[in-house]
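REVIEWER CHECKLIST
Item 1: Sequence provided? yes
Item 2: Single chain? yes
Item 3: Sequence as submitted:
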Amino acid sequence: MRWKLLRRRLSVSAPRVIVRRQLPWPLRWAAAAVMLGFSGAIALWAFELGKDIAGLDRQARAELGQLRAEAARLRQERDQAQSLAHTADSLLKAERAAQEKLALQLRQLEARNLSLQADLGFFERLLPAVPGEPGVAVRGLQAEPVMPGRLRYQLLLMQSGRPGASFSGSCELTLAGTLDGKPWMLTAPTRPQPVHLKQYARLEGVIEHPPGAVVKTVQVKVTDGSGTVRTTHTIRL
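Item 4: Structure as written out by the authors:
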């Protein structure tokens, strides 16, 4: 039996044996990767060479430069448009603020005009309408010392008579009292103050007098252009 097996192994009909060298699988994967990388590099080189030969790369670079210049120009135009828009918005806001301010001033002037018209109507009702020559009256004379030797006064002159008639004349004030225990009088100003009015006129000012004088009365005298006394008014302090 053993002889048969030995003869079979040594004879022509014995099975063939092939000896192969086995490489580790990491080395096989690395070799495959190197081959793939080398093939990809060759393909990329061939592609770039083909583009260079065909002139596609130069054309793409020129188009890219044009596109960049166009983008820069568009950005500049956008910035200019935004600047103009901001300037226009600022001008519009300033114009609106100016219009609102003018509208407020107009309302204030209208309110003041209405107040003046109401005051004028009130003053006109105070004086009786007397036909003939215009008459002048002193209304609301006030006087008060502001400091030793100074007296502040305010008065309102009104006239009645023909509508639209005017009055021209002068006004002077006389202070009376005592100075060092003796009677004292002062007419101010030195020259009568000119007066011209159609309906009413407001006069005010400060009269200087000796600091030691005691003012007891203040008299207002209004004369016309010929020097005729038209009215007088006296108050006591």
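Item 5: Key structural point noted by reviewer: Residues 129-133 have pLDDT under 50 and may be disordered.
Item 6: Recommendation: ____
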